[in-house]
């Protein structure tokens, strides 16, 4: 099998439905020959995730709430028993109370600050720690981030602060795991209409703004993130670690509104 991910086994965390970024990456990885396992959060999502996993020929579909260490442990024990090793992992998990994804960052509560940081940032370190012993021949870890980590975006608030911490943790993990040949990278996706994004205030406006002002004059697709995901997870990127790779139709390089952008 000449495909770029043939013979590789990976864990995909964060599929909620067929619009999830994790699903875009899973499809692209499976197209390239990868064998996949999936985790889902909560019983309600199981009936969405199981048929999707079936489509890609995956039978390992495990519940996992990253808030609960025993649930994370269980997933990695399952992988250790079934596969004995792991080549890559996709972490596409984030959460914040949607009442705080609007208005001012200044109004963030301590409770939601903690929860947002825990689920959206610490969980990546927590899964990296458990993946490490399974990646004896090296591996690739990938998390999802957003430009709101680097610049202030309306309504992104505490999630922007959590993504900044997540991006810093990518660099620390890259150093800690580099000597065992494990690479750690982030994919900074442009805005996409997913379940998680629906909690962000004025999201439709943000989508339009990005569409009109990105160099490519469009929004990113699941195929865009899938292709870049395969690059970062596969041996195409063996010299790349600690990197945050923008897949945003170029939006992050732009300094101001495009002269030809319509009013929205
Ligand atoms: P999504 O809603 O499809 O995925 C978010 C996932 O997080 C869901 O599967 C949900 O079940 C999971 N999750 C939440 N809390 C969890 C917990 N405690 N334990 C385990 N899983 C939990 O939305 P998405 O947009 O595909 O989000 C995936 C990642 O991409 C997130 O990190 C998000 O911040 C990031 N991202 C999204 C966009 C965008 O515009 N949609 C842009 C850049 C980055």
Automatic annotation (TrEMBL):
Record's catalysed reaction(s): a 2,3-saturated acyl-[ACP] + NAD(+) = a (2E)-enoyl-[ACP] + NADH + H(+)
GO process terms (BP): fatty acid biosynthetic process
GO MF annotation: an example: enoyl-[acyl-carrier-protein] reductase (NADH) activity
Enzyme class: oxidoreductase
InterPro entries for the chain: Enoyl-ACP_Rdtase_NADH (IPR014358), NAD(P)-bd_dom_sf (IPR036291), SDR_fam (IPR002347)
Keyword flag NAD: yes
UniProt cross-references to Gene3D superfamilies, sorted A to Z: Enoyl acyl carrier protein reductase (1.10.8.400), NAD(P)-binding Rossmann-like Domain (3.40.50.720)
Pathway membership: Lipid metabolism; fatty acid biosynthesis
Active site annotation, chain numbering: 146 (proton acceptor), 156 (proton acceptor)
Binding site for NAD(+): 14, 20-21, 65-66, 93, 163
E.C. number(s) listed in UniProt: 1.3.1.9
Keyword tags: Fatty acid biosynthesis, Fatty acid metabolism, Lipid biosynthesis, Lipid metabolism, NAD, Oxidoreductase
Family as reported in the entry's similarity comment: Belongs to the short-chain dehydrogenases/reductases (SDR) family. FabI subfamily.
Name of the protein in question: Enoyl-[acyl-carrier-protein] reductase [NADH]
Organism: Thalassobaculum litoreum DSM 18839
